[in-house]
Write a structure and sequence with these properties.
The protein is an alpha/beta fold. The protein contains 11 helices and 8 strands.
């Protein structure tokens, strides 16, 4: 059990910078609702990401693209009400910031005002610089996201590891430097070679959170439903399952159904 994480009564963007400076790893998980967000927060996770992965694990879509800004605000509002300690970061969904920087700012403002979130996250490098600058100038903290960017999946055509080739690796490093210089408080690196991720984390002063990016970065993030084993369909190399809730939940529901049908539930002590 970690003791250091409990020294932060409320995690802020400044707290994360201190964690990196002190060599303390940052823990980050997704959450999409009040109940699970409260449990994640009570467990001492530093950052809760209201991810557009809700499109997959909550709504059942194949990609993250269909989820809307209104839906992200709905999920973020529920999460915020369950959190007392963690920093809550909300994904800007596809189509809400790529068109122009004014639209990006409007989207970010809506998330902050309507949900009470603490920061936003967006995907992309140099092509999103103007949007990032405009949002930060408005006083809204931004976390960047490089490497495999799921909102661009149809451009990539595959979920394979990114930046294995020199040209793409160099561009990723330049994008990371740009995100730092522009004022992002941190960035996520998804599914890139561990050596490259470690290099990026050593080059920039802002915290680098990895998912499938090795152990040389400043912290780790996973999708809550994946690490709790609620689904057995998604099994990338980087995923560690800490529970097998898929089996546990089905077993519990089957037992309930059997108890109802056998008239075992409710028993004498479970009625008025």
């Amino acid at each position: 059990m970690s003791v250091a994480k409990n020294t932060y009564n409320r995690v802020t963007t400044n707290s994360l910078l201190k964690m990196k400076t002190n060599g303390e790893k940052i823990s980050m998980l997704t959450a999409y609702d009040f109940t699970l967000a409260g449990l994640v927060d009570q467990a001492g996770v530093d950052v809760i990401l209201v991810g557009d992965s809700a499109s997959n694990v909550i709504a059942g879509h194949e990609t993250t693209l269909p989820i809307t800004l209104d839906q992200m605000i709905y999920h973020a509002s529920a999460v915020i009400r369950g959190v007392k300690r963690a920093l809550v970061v909300v994904d800007l969904p596809f189509g809400t910031y790529q068109a122009d920087s004014k639209e990006a700012l409007r989207s970010a403002i809506r998330i902050m005002k309507e949900s009470g979130a603490h920061a936003v996250k967006l995907e992309g490098g140099i092509q999103e610089k103007s949007s990032i600058e405009r949002i930060i100038q408005a006083g809204i903290p931004i976390m960047g996201h490089l490497g495999l960017t799921p909102q661009s999946i149809y451009k990539f055509g595959t979920y394979t590891v990114r930046a294995k080739e020199e040209v793409e690796a160099k561009q990723l490093i330049e994008d990371a430097k740009m995100l730092e210089k522009t004022g992002c408080f941190g960035l996520v690196l998804e599914k890139v070679p561990a050596d490259l991720a470690k290099k990026v984390a050593s080059i920039v002063s802002i915290p680098v959170i990895g998912i499938g990016a090795g152990n040389g970065v400043d912290g780790q993030v996973l999708v809550l439903h994946d690490m709790l084993g609620m689904s057995k369909e998604f099994s990338p190399r980087f995923l560690r399952r800490y529970l097998d809730l898929h089996t546990e939940i089905i077993g519990a529901i089957q037992q309930y159904t059997n108890d109802v049908k056998s008239k075992d539930f409710p028993n004498e002590s479970e009625q008025y």
